[in-house]
Design brief:
Largest sheet: 4 strands, antiparallel
Number of helices: 2
Shape: globular
Number of domains: 1
Radius of gyration: 12 Å
Strand order of the largest sheet: 1-2-4-3
Helix content: 25-40%
Strand content: 15-25%
Length: 80
């Protein structure tokens, strides 16, 4: 599942991937999880999540931000 905001939308893009085969997961449940995770992160840390956030118990990684932005900053999200 990938989400790319409109111009008026302040939510950063994200995508959800399998931790094991790196495939993008395009299911509603992954979208709900990513949005809930983002809300929890913002409440706890007071900022937007960025980069890869692995949830090993579920075999998922949520990638917050554009892949191109992460690669340009020297960050590889395929860290496993």
């Amino acid at each position: 599942m990938s989400y790319h905001p409109t111009v008026d939308d302040q939510v950063q893009p994200y995508s959800v991937h399998s931790l094991y085969d790196h495939e993008t997961l395009d299911v509603a449940e992954a979208d709900v999880l990513a949005r809930a995770y983002r809300a929890m992160w913002r409440q706890r840390h007071g900022s937007e999540p960025h980069g890869p956030h692995a949830i090993t118990g579920l075999g998922l990684v949520i990638l917050f931000g554009e892949t191109e932005q992460l690669a340009g900053g020297g960050m590889s999200w395929r860290f496993w």
